[in-house]
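assembly run, all chains below
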Amino acid sequence: MNAVHSLWLSSLPALAEFFLLAAGCTILVIDAFLDKGREAITCRLSQLALVVTLALVVALFPDARITAFDGSFVSDVMGGLLKIFILLIVIVGLFYLQAYLDERGQARGEYFVLVLFGSLGMLVMVSAGSFLTLYLGLELLSLSLYALVALNRESPLACEAAMKYFVLGALASGILLYGISMIYGSTGRIDFAGVSSAIGDASSLSLITLLGLVFVVVGIAFKFGAVPFHMWVPDVYEGAPAPITMLIATAPKIAAFGMLIRALGEGLEFLFIDWMQMLTFLAIASLAIGNVVAIAQTNMKRMLAYSAIAHVGFIFIGLLTGTPGGKAASMFYVISYALMALGAFGMVIWLGRKDGVGEADRIDDLKGIIERNPWFALMMLFLMLSMAGVPPFVGFWAKLAVLSEAVDVGMTWLAVTAVIFSVIGLFYYLRVVGLMFFHAPERSAPIVAPNTVRLVLSINALAIVAFGFYPDLLMDICVRAFPGLMAGQ
Amino acid sequence: MFISFVFYTLAAVLVASAIMVISARNPVHCALFLVMAFFSSAGIWLLLEAEFLAIVLVLVYVGAVMVLFLFVVMMLDINLAPLREGFARYLPIGALVAAVVVIEIVLVIGASDIDLPAVGDIVYRDADYSNTKELGTLLYTVHLYAFELAAAILLVAIVAAIALTMRRRSGTKSQDPSRQVAVKREDRIRIVSMPSSSDPEHESSERRR
Amino acid sequence: MSDLLINLFGWLPANLFLLVETLLKIALLLVPLLITVAWYTYAERKVIGYMQVRIGPNRVGPKGWLQPIADAVKLMFKELIVPARANRFLFLIAPVISLTCALAAWAVVPFSDFLVISDINAGLLYILAMTSLGVYGVIIAGWASNSKYALLGAMRCAAQIVAYEIAMGFALVVVLMAAGSLNLREIVAAQEGGIVNWFWLPLLPMFLVYMISGIAETNRAPFDVAEGESEIVAGFHVEYSGMAFSVFFLAEYANMILISALTVLMFLGGWLSPFPLAAGLPLIGGLFEPGVHWFIFKTVFFMFLFLWLRATFPRYRYDQIMRLGWKVFIPLTVVWIAVTGIAIMIGLPPWFD
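ok done. output:
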């Protein structure tokens, strides 16, 4: 009995995760007994569950690093912060999802339940203490996302996207797992602390560990959608229903950032030199391909997909400096990117409501928005400028933070390359702005959207502006996540 | 000596059947070779005294997963000819890439590097040592969190699979046996009250015609 | 017995002696088993005959007792026809796979405290693994025959066995929880005591689930849709004749005996006596000692039950079979796992204290 009791106590830090799991199962059962057409209840219940989870994360917010379950669960400031942002984004995303599905008559309870389990996967990823939990969290997230993309079986585009996503995602998972198995084989440990100390203690570097590292980095790059492992990103972004694309593009990026910090920063920190080189290559390639190919896109979702690839390059630049400041800058970047992408995809969803069925995801659909709804045109302007990195929006501060960290560690050339490609990238963001403001609209029908969507979208875009004027609000939070920074400086 | 002999036999069978899995022409044969590969690896696990893993491999993969595989493969009429069309064309470049990767790996990692000092030698235990129990203890204490997560993943897989396949397709012709069984007399026959032929009026009208 | 063996073959080197010893043990098990199978077919025809108020086979030998021998001779001399465009190798190996799996499981079945070929730790798992392999014989036979009825039978069989194996596995998990061991001998030992101490009482739903799933696993009436002679001729073995057919037949009956024996071991105390206190009685007291006779008696009862059920019930409809397996048995077993867990935790006497 005592053992059971102590198990309860030791699993307390993971209470939010366990609550979310239990809530997901409960809502699944409730949904099975709900009549058709009452899916809104499932959605609200799911949001309620996420809010309670958020409250639990805040209530259990750790002051220092705590581990549970023999080190396979880690609760620290970074994990807590990332979890808060992930949950917030998913809660907001569910508003869009519900409105979107409701209008098209495609609402099914499984959408919301799968989103819940996907969120659980993300939470697990950012607080993973071992390669095993990291992998399981990633699979939980990926499986939910594959299904979410495919759930609208009537759409051939969505099915194709889901198939590509599934096959390439499974390949990436296999590669990651293969790398993990090599690292486990050479170090004999699966938890990050153990792997780290085993590599640190070893007199010479085992080449199998190095090969394992290569596979792990490739697997992670696949999940991030970094070049040259980006092939799935545009197709999936285009094929998936817009709110699902939004969920793929935002919160999982934050979770992937957490995964990268845990696996490379904590588990394989002594191999820094090796993975730094790989990340450098990935970052440059992502910046180049992402920014250049985005120019050629005519589909808004595809354009945002290539823009996401370019942003991943920036996230990697912050990480490969290896300093706590770089990590904090990266975290700042990923969170602000997630907020911007949330708004941008919100716009795509909102536009898609023109006749209630199709998605308005061509860039031409944005023409003359200023005449149809000036307020949202302004919001979109903010989002695009922020993504492009124009001051004073938050995107600018994010890029600035990352680049200044790169310059600090003497990688000026990298920073210069990044700036050049950002300038190239400016073109396609500004083209969107140009279409919105200086072209006649193709349709004149007014855009109608539920009040929740309008409200959420406005708040989102205004937050971009607010963080742009007060970037320190967000930066201070990110700096807190990496205690080494405060001690070091 | 004897153990080495068994090991090399099993390993040879494993590698040979694994190659056949990807090279056999008939998909059913591929699946059956995969079964053989599973059996051989189960045998290798037995040599390592991991009886639980060995038997579970047979039980789960051979006994359940491969049965479903075969089920699907037999139901599908896979014509392999179109699949193999590009094979000869892509073979040179594929082989080249494979060769480069193999050479790179061999150059980077010599045979001397492939020892795993952290794992150590296999420890042989007494006959009454139950590694099932050891595994269970580990799963429900140290790896409890991972175990629960794996359960959640399986749940998601079930939900996703059912949500993706359970849908009404329009235009399919299928029987619903429970409706067939529940049929009542009223659904199938209609009793019409007809005037009987002894009715004089009716008869007279007949006659008139 | 081992003393006798050592006297006879003691001069052999140790490895070889082990081999001889094992082979002898296997022969000692298999010969009686196959003889039982032969006369089990006779018993089936007789029992069902009497249940249907007719006599059954009565021409060959006194009261038809030699009928199995006549059948065997007939089947052996029949021509083995391989259908055109069938996959010859798989067609011929399928019945062998069936029989091998049916017989291999017997390796760990203990007849009494010491009468067992191989007393392994993970005996229960081994049994599960071996019984789950039997389906391959059916599937391969159905596919290799190049006949649509055979393929239909194989498909039905595969779906059915996968469905019922899960329920069966869960039922065995409950037994494993109750006994605290995977070793079959220890599972019986955990049921030490009289008839109320056996697991059939605390695990009554599992006992029934296991019994019914066992019938479904062996493709016996009322779950014999894989053969379904009125629907798909004879299902998976429609193209088989002569010895190949009879090997399938042997496998089916060996499996029935195996399921009966396993039910006895898991739920009815194996070789234990139902009234151990009666062992003190004069004259007949010896009968109430635990021993192999109890095991055989109980097994024969369940073998009879197989025949009885066949004579009694009409064939299940296919979708009802699936529903019973997936929607009734699996939830039931899962619930009972929880119930048993609680019973073990509170140490419910007299089983779990």
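Chain A has a mean pLDDT of 86.

Residues 2-480 of chain A form one domain.

not gonna interpret more than that til we talk
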